[in-house]
Write a structure and sequence with these properties.
- The complex is a heterodimer of chains A (267) and B (274).
- Chain A is mainly α and 267 residues long.
- Chain A has a single domain (69-257), classed as MetI-like fold.
- Chain A has helices spanning 6-29, 46-53, 55-87, 92-107, 110-124, 130-155, 158-166, 171-200, 203-208, 216-226, 230-260.
- The chains are: A mainly alpha (267), B mainly alpha (274).
- At the A-B interface, helix 1, helix 3, helix 4, helix 5 and helix 6 of A face helix 1, helix 3, helix 4, helix 5 and helix 7 of B.
- Chain A: It is a multi-pass membrane protein.
- Chain A: InterPro entries: Bact_Polyamine_Transport (IPR051789), MetI-like (IPR000515), MetI-like_sf (IPR035906).
- Chain A: Belongs to the binding-protein-dependent transport system permease family. CysTW subfamily.
């Protein structure tokens, strides 16, 4: 392997600086007592205090987290069961059709998903608010979970199931004691990805949320349209911190399950 | 794994999801595109689409998406290539991915401050003697921010393709007397084309439908297909016209996916899903 030349190192360094500068810029000015993103006067935590004193903002934060957790949980359940069902489809044509349908929401632009769900919810009569946002998030997370779980199922040896059947396991036993433990890493990965998709979503939520309900992304949008407010900077400081925790958590869980996979015996 | 016993009941909620949230929305969008403001059946929306205003908007939307994709590719390919050459490439890759996990709105908001009249860019310009510029609300700032947002999504598939490339092929090409440039052009690039195609897919389609960045950074100067749909649905409340634009966006999406579609063989990174 050749060593990286100085120019290459410089290029890489530049890319990383550009990638991280805006985020650090936001977090840096969240500690500014000056009230603008231009000159740094002195260190303060008042903007963070303002976030926590604002009950409306705290409510929105709670909404965002509740929607993310619930939608990730529900979509993980439906997606995992769906993936288990998909691998058992024998008919190749049907299987490929189902997989193509699965991928439609992954490649569709957010605006299309948002607009079509808005039509759907209005037609069916779902109240625009918490329930519509939750349903939408569940809907666009399911295919991601399927994509994360499928490879695990495909690499699973079918003789494991035959063995379980021979030993007298019921259908339920096979699902809960053989299949689910084996595909656990895929399920976790799917859950985390669904969580981040939900936390990060703006466009779909923007379409299907009514007047009374708001998530963090939608709120930041309306705040940013009104101009610079260092409260948004404080929120980004918090979001950055939580994101890093999630990344570390995800890394820890996937690595641990990777290490434990060989020795894992279903009890 | 072949086991038929679990399929009937585990697939029920999943099929329900497909019917309700994949098939029904597409049908509804097509249906609404055929309605006028009063809910009567009409082709007027389609006629409208082919008038000057919407065609011009579609063209400019494609032009911006093209610019964003090209710049993302120009930045991402060398970056992905250099990362595969580093010692701890997985760690560097994670560092590339982390910014894409930070809320999109916050990253966009950061540029309102950075590009502002008294922001750091203008401060740097001032010290080298250039007077303050209006950077925000220009086409260039819009393209820059969009490229910034999309770079990780372009780097990832290209990195995967480069990482799978057998280095023996490069050594062979060098041994046989090919220059660095020829090796790149005739060996590396063709073998990583699938990664590039996935990257283009991941950037071009979302670029067509951006609407938040256009509003915040370009200040309504840039109208993409996404902005137009949002405008028709949430501001003008003309769902028929909005759905018509959405139908065309879906069509464009399929065409782009066909053009950048991957053949079964080769180093496709999402081949398993197909």
């Amino acid at each position: 392997m050749e060593k990286l030349s100085k120019g290459s190192k410089l290029y890489l360094a530049l890319v990383f600086v550009v990638l991280y500068a805006p985020i650090l810029f936001l977090v840096f000015y969240s500690f500014n007592s000056g009230g603008t993103m231009t000159n740094f006067e002195s260190f303060t935590l008042e903007h963070y205090k303002a976030v926590f004193d604002d009950t409306r903002l705290i409510n929105i934060l709670i909404n965002t987290v509740v929607v993310a957790l619930l939608s990730a949980l529900i979509s993980t359940m439906i997606g995992t069961l769906g993936a288990i069902g998909i691998v058992s489809i024998r008919n190749h044509k049907l299987r490929n059709t189902v997989l193509s349908l699965n991928n439609i929401l992954i490649v569709s632009p957010d605006v299309i998903i948002g607009a079509s769900f808005l039509i759907l919810f209005t037609m069916v009569g779902v109240n625009l608010g918490f329930s519509s946002v939750l349903l939408a998030h569940v809907a666009f997370s399911i295919p991601i979970v399927v994509i994360m779980v499928l490879p695990k199922l495909q690499e699973m040896n079918s003789s494991l199931i035959d063995a379980a059947l021979d030993l007298g396991a019921s259908r339920r036993d096979i699902l809960t004691r053989v299949i689910l433990p084996y595909i656990k890493p895929g399920i976790f990965a799917g859950f985390f990805l669904a969580l981040t998709y939900s936390l990060d979503d703006f466009a779909v939520t923007f379409f299907v949320t009514g007047n009374g309900f708001s998530t963090l992304s939608v709120e930041i949008y309306s705040m940013a349209r009104a101009g610079v407010s260092l409260t948004v900077n404080a929120i980004s400081g918090l979001v950055f911190f939580v994101t890093m925790l999630l990344v570390l958590g995800y890394y820890f869980i996937t690595n641990r399950s990777k290490g434990a996979r060989g020795s894992e015996v279903p009890k | 794994m072949r086991n038929n016993k679990n399929s009937p009941f585990t697939l029920v909620p999943y099929y329900l999801w497909i019917a309700l949230f994949v098939i029904a929305p597409i049908i509804l969008v097509v249906y609404y595109s055929l309605l006028d403001l009063n809910g009567n059946f009409t082709f007027a929306n389609y006629q409208n689409f082919f008038t000057g205003v919407y065609l011009k908007m579609t063209l400019s939307s494609f032009w911006y998406a093209f610019l964003i994709t090209v710049f993302s590719l120009l930045v991402s390919y060398p970056t992905a290539y250099l990362i595969t050459k580093t010692k701890q490439k997985q760690l560097w890759l994670i560092l590339i991915i982390i910014p894409s996990w930070i809320n999109l709105l916050l990253k966009t908001y950061a540029f309102i401050g950075i590009f502002g009249m008294s922001g750091p860019i203008n401060a740097v310009l001032k010290t080298i003697g250039i007077p303050e510029q209006q950077i925000l609300f220009t086409d260039a700032s819009f393209v820059f921010v969009a490229v910034y947002i999309f770079i990780p999504f372009m780097i990832l598939p290209i990195f995967n393709a480069l990482d799978k490339l057998n280095p023996a092929l490069i050594y062979a090409s060098r041994d046989l007397g090919a220059s660095k440039l020829t090796t790149f052009r005739r060996v590396i690039l063709p073998l990583t084309m699938n990664g590039v195609k996935s990257g283009i897919q991941a950037v071009f389609i979302p670029s067509l439908s951006l609407f938040m960045i256009t509003r915040l950074i370009a200040g309504n100067r840039v109208i993409t297909l996404g902005t137009a749909i949002e405008q028709q649905f949430l501001v003008t409340q003309n769902w028929g016209m909005g759905s018509t634009i959405a139908v065309f966006l879906i069509l464009f999406m399929f065409i782009i996916m066909l053009l950048t579609g991957q053949k079964e063989k080769g180093a496709s990174q999402n081949g398993k899903a197909k």
